[in-house]
Amino acid sequence: MSKEFKENYDKITHKFENSWETISNDEETILYRFADEYKVFLDNGKTERECVDVILRIAKLNGFRDLKECIANDEEVKPGMKIYGNNKGKSAVILIVGEDNIQDGMNIIGTHLDSPRLDIKPFPLYEDGGLALLKTHYYGWVKKYQWASIPIALHGVVFKKNGEKVNLVIGENENDPVFFISDLLPHLAKNQMVKKLSEGITGEGLNIIVGSIPLGDKDIDTKVKFHIMKILNNKYGIEEDDFAVAEIQAVPATKARDVGLDRGLVAGYGHDDRACSFAALRAILEVDKPKRTCAVVFADKEEVGSNGNTGMESKFFENIIAELIALQNRNYNEIFLRRALARSKALSGDVMAAFNPNFPDVLDKRNAAFLGKGVTLVKYTGSRGKLNCNDANSEFIMNVRNIFNENNITWQIGELGKVDQGGAGTIAYALANYGAEVIDCGVPVINMHAPYELISKIDLYMTFKGYKAFLKDA
Ligand code: MN
Ligand code: MN
């Protein structure tokens, strides 16, 4: 090829590059450190409640103040003010007031903190075959068989009759016991093995073994169960009916770990969507005195349809913005809130399915995201002909692309599956309902929704960089 053709070829055709091949040595060092911090974040936040605790603790250390406090003091909201809103300890918003009026719109990143898991039922404890077990009801879209034969930890809150709150975390410490869901030995699995993968382990079969040693005399017929109840009572003061008012979640008792001899990948529980949540948190911490108000929304309930008063379908986010506007403007009018939201630009920060060499046929390779190629922009999600998708507007995608290009952010595109292969949604539609411009943008993942998911460190870092540039420049 002549030089002229070569230049022309490079200019008008495009190849999404591998970020590892373009990143500087300095940044490579930074991104490894970033990933180390992320692993700690993942290990400390295995439920939405724990994540909110960690995020708000970090926010407070960085000068963010509780919106409730500002309301109580009737404080005037000034540019540069750093504020957080805590919604029932399960979802949260952190924001920095911009120089422009909030009514001119905000730059928003919306992520979610809930991850697929097994929730403990309201009356869960029983005994069978000399074992004590807990009944569960799975939360979100899981492949049930993946939850058998792995170490399980229990996390959650229990309220005693005197109102005292007990925070449970059992199975994370090296010396803790773990819990276990049993599968069937292959020797006796003749019938199971010919079942569909979705039926080999059933929902009602996801019972967690929590004990085996009987306690008590002949009159008691469920001595193992009694023993477990006794331990819970001695240690935490819990009685059996307290389960009915508790929220206890079974999660993998695993730590986030580097994967590969070159340590480029991270395996962990809850990359969906704590990878984007961490990237967004770190991004807003590095924003100072922005022109437009910056907000990061950490939603709950995304995995079960965004309903409930901590999910994105609820009013928690707009209520927080309404409070903020009311502090800024004594003559509050609802139209101010609507303008603020409708003039906003948002990245729906959620993970995206990445190309998986073990299953190469489910994605259109030309439009798929790959591990290592950077932060992923997803114009639309949905299924069966983009059903229920938010389809980002061209004008806005251009805006985001320019910001990424100007800031040396390696980005790629993604599509959730080949046409008619399946699909899913994110919280993008909920932000778009306000009239805001929204595009899905986040970290590509292999093995999504499994107890152990896989991401690339460089994609996580590029997502952080992308979010930061967006908050500052959009
Ligand atoms: Mn997600
Ligand atoms: Mn998900």
Write the layout of secondary structure elements.
Blueprint lengths: L2 H10 L12 H20 L3 H14 L3 E2 H6 L9 E6 L3 E6 L9 E7 L4 E12 L2 E9 L12 E8 L5 E6 L19 H4 L14 E4 L11 H14 L10 E6 L4 E3 L5 E4 L2 H15 L7 E7 L16 H13 L5 H9 L2 E4 L3 E2 L21 E4 L3 E2 L10 H13 L4 E3 L9 E2 L3 H5 L4 E6 L1 E2 L7 E4 H17 L1
Parallel strand pairs: 1-2, 4-13, 4-14, 14-20, 15-21, 16-18
Antiparallel strand pairs: 2-3, 3-13, 5-6, 5-10, 6-9, 7-8, 7-10, 11-12, 12-22, 16-20, 17-19
One manganese (II) ion binds next to loops.
Question: Can you put this structure into words, describing what you see?
Answer:
The chain is of the alpha/beta class and 474 residues long. It has 2 domains: 3-115 and 269-473, Zn peptidases (Aminopeptidase), CATH 3.40.630; 117-252, Aminopeptidase i, Domain 2 (Roll). 30% of the residues lie in helices and 23% in strands. The chain has 12 helices and 22 strands. The chain has helices at residues 3-12, 25-44, 48-61, 67-72, 190-193, 223-236, 271-285, 316-328, 334-342, 394-406, 428-432, 457-473, and strands at residues 65-66, 82-87, 91-96, 106-112, 117-128, 131-139, 152-159, 165-170, 208-211, 247-252, 257-259, 265-268, 293-299, 345-348, 352-353, 375-378, 382-383, 411-413, 423-424, 437-442, 444-445, 453-456. The strands form 5 sheets. It has a 9-stranded mixed beta sheet, sandwiched between helices. A 6-stranded antiparallel beta sheet has the order 8-7-10-5-6-9. A hairpin with a 2-residue loop joins strand 5 (117-128) and strand 6 (131-139). It is globular, with a radius of gyration of 24 Å. The two termini are 40 Å apart. The mean pLDDT is 96. One manganese (II) ion binds at residues 112, 272-273, 302, 350-351, 426.
